[in-house]
């Protein structure tokens, strides 16, 4: 019987588990910085390499496509070799990819370096989530995921700020120099903690558990499940309308309001700060409201904020719009994550990486689609459209959650 069902408080997590979760949060921070660091620098890359914005956006879209597809590889690998171990070595691999991006002399070389970076960065967020799912009791899971998610949320802030500020002040290469250092330090810390876990195998036995059946069999079981199939499809749409369209927010502010890349990147970084605010108060909201209320409110906040940011004639309203959009998005996304970790507890690594794969494949589709629609509709209309889709997804997911709870008699 769970602590919630018995009315007893959940047993506190050990200091070692909390330390490992903190380090995994640093890894998710670095992964998200890598994803978002090119957003604000797209106009500068377009100028430096003499290409249009859609071509420059390959550094985002190719990363997202590769990142999404690589999830399919890391799920079973994490289940077999150990999730924390794979995260540690993958983080060090990201350091190599970042160094290659730093040395790129053409857009093609930069895109290739980003591809290599994505191949290793793909392991970090989903396997961190899966490790937490293995190591934390169900009644504490969504709350602990808000703490792990704090890293990725801060990564949005860090990526947008580093991409904009360093590109404006020193040049785009310095952004990748920062990223190389970040991955190197975090990877070393993770490797040390993994070795500590190996010295105490009994304490980490639960986190090492995983099924040994083939990936195809695991994936088929997950994809054919009615509920998990819905979660994966919604993750794809969320990635396209949320993370995908987000990639052009800074370019929209730069082009429509004449803001510098630094200012535009700083404003969009408030999206991540809004997520940080949610992570800080999320435990209280999770305990007070049911999941369907969280996703409904989250989707509505993203939609209204995107509409304001899309058509504001002045930069000032963009500040609260970006902040509230981030708060709403992570209110929605954290609930999605909690459902993803419970799709298949016996093959959690594969389940969560399938979720992340759908999410970031959706992001890649969103980036490409948004960049192509800008020339036809304008950047403001594209930003507003992404927000409208998030509203629809929030309403749909809330309805599905309420129907599921009713069937369970909750």
Give an overview of the whole structure.
By secondary structure, the protein is an all-alpha fold. The chain is built from 19 helices and no strands. The two termini are 16 Å apart.
Brief rundown of the structure:
With 410 residues, the chain is mainly alpha-helical.
Terminal Cα span: 16 Å
User: N-to-C SSE series?
Assistant: HHHHHHHHHHHHHHHHHHH
Helix content: over 70%
The number of helices is 19
What's the main sheet like? none
Low-confidence stretches: 1-9, 203-212
Taken as a percent bin, the fraction of beta residues is: under 5%
Indicate the radius of gyration in whole angstroms: 20 Å
Principal-axis shape equals globular
């Amino acid at each position: 019987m769970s602590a919630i069902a018995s009315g007893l408080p959940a047993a506190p997590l050990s200091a070692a588990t909390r330390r490992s979760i903190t380090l995994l949060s640093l890894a998710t921070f670095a992964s998200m910085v890598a994803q978002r660091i090119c957003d604000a620098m797209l106009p500068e890359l377009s100028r430096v390499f003499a290409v249009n914005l859609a071509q420059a956006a390959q550094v985002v879209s190719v990363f997202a496509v590769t990142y999404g597809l690589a999830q399919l590889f890391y799920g079973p690998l994490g289940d077999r070799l150990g999730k924390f171990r794979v995260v540690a070595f993958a983080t060090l691999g990201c350091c190599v990819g970042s160094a290659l991006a730093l040395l790129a002399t053409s857009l093609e070389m930069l895109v290739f370096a980003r591809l290599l970076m994505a191949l290793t960065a793909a392991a970090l967020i989903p396997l961190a989530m899966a490790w937490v799912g293995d190591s934390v009791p169900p009644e504490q899971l969504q709350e602990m995921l808000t703490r792990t998610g704090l890293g990725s949320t801060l990564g949005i802030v860090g990526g947008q700020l580093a991409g904009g500020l360093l590109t404006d002040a020193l040049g785009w290469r310095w952004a990748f120099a920062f990223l190389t250092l970040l991955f190197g330090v975090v990877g070393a810390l993770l490797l040390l903690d993994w070795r500590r876990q190996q010295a105490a195998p009994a304490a980490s036995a639960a986190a090492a558990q995983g099924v040994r059946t083939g990936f195809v069999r695991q994936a088929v079981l997950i994809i054919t499940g009615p509920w998990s199939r819905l979660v994966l499809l919604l993750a794809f749409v969320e990635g396209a309308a949320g993370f995908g369209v987000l990639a052009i927010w800074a370019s929209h502010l730069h082009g429509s309001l004449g803001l510098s890349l630094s200012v535009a990147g700083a404003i969009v970084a408030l999206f991540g700060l809004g997520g940080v605010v949610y992570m800080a108060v999320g435990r209280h909201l999770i305990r007070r409201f049911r999941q369907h209320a969280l996703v409904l409110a989250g989707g509505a906040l993203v939609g209204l904020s995107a509409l304001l940011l899309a058509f504001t004639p002045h930069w000032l309203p963009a500040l609260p719009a970006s902040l509230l959009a981030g708060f709403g998005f992570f209110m929605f996304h954290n609930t999605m994550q909690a459902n993803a970790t419970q799709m298949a507890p016996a093959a959690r690594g594969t389940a969560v990486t399938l979720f992340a794969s759908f999410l970031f494949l959706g992001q890649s589709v969103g980036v490409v689609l948004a960049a192509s629609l800008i020339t036809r509709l304008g950047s403001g209309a594209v930003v507003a459209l992404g927000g409208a889709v998030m509203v629809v997804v929030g309403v749909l997911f809330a309805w599905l959650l309420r129907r599921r709870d009713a069937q369970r008699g909750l």
